[in-house]
Amino acid sequence: MTCPSFRRRVITIDAPRYEYRPAVLPQKLSPCALGNWSAARLSTRLGTSRLWVEYSCDGMYHPRPNVNNGRYFRKRMAASDALERIVFCDHYPDVHYISAIDAESLDGVLSADLPCLNGPGGPPDNRVLFVGNRRSGTHMHYDLPDNVVLVLEGSKRFILFPPEQTDDLAPYATHHYCSNFSSLTDRDLVSRATACADSITLTVQRGEMIYIPSCWWHRVTNDGFSVSLTNLWPVSKRRREMPSYRRYADALARHGTGDL
After folding, report:
1. Do residues 74 and 55 lie in contact, with contact meaning Cβ atoms separated by under 8 Å?
2. Torsion angle, CA of 240/243/249/250, rounded to 10 degrees?
3. Which in 50, 73, 124, 215 has the greatest CB count within 10 A?
4. pLDDT score at 17
């Protein structure tokens, strides 16, 4: 059977009906709608394109104010080299993670292949791609936009906390660049998730989407080789008045940047 062209696939989502609580959305994309996001296919499509690649010498990176000014360590690499280090992660001492790559960049090489999501306000303002393996992920943090993560390949595990847990998650002070990250260790976070009735722990599989509302804390880890697309929408004025939103928005303004 020949699959219909996934290049024209548009998925309408209704995330706000979940009333500001994370949820795996009921729509699940078929393999035809997703397309081929294997490492071999990505390597063929991207080839020697140069990407900014996140790397760490001790597993999933935990931003800290006293290391690299709270920023990620990133270096420019050929996409094929980065993918080799991600796929064969057990053979390399450093962990590599293609994180937050603008989906519209790279001269449209990938954007035409990505499923398009439409929310109540239209398409997302930004779409970013993540490619990693089991030793990579993103430490506990929160973002300002509403977020829908679509898993294109593999699966990802999420631990989430509501904004009301901000103080208990001990974020870094707002004069630090990484002020939207928790200072707690992974072990402490897992223990807190077990003890906190308001926390959510779940796994999102290939073809599934998870809605993460603005300012909800989340820790993300990859279960084996994984490719995902993060879709970001602006939030309402009411959401922008939340203390956790104002806290991080003020920090970004202080650092003179619109994002991290």
Report:
1. yes
2. 130
3. 215
4. 60
Residue 115: how many other CB atoms lie within 10 Å: 20
CA–CA dist 79, 242 (Å, integer):
39
Give me the chain's average pLDDT, please.
89
Please say whether the beta carbons of 74 and 109 come within 8 A.
no
pLDDT digits over 205-246, tens only? 999 999 999 999 999 999 999 999 999 999 888 889 999 999
> Per the structure block, which two tokens stand in for 80?
């094929």
Sequence-ordered list of residues with C-beta below 8 angstroms from that of 172, at least 6 positions apart, any chain: 64, 65, 70, 178, 179, 181, 183
| Total length of the chain | 260
CA 174 to the chain's CA centroid: 22
Both tokens of 223, joined, read 């279960």
Residues with Cβ < 8 Å from 97, sequence gap 6 or more? 53, 54, 55, 56, 61, 86, 130, 131, 132, 136, 137
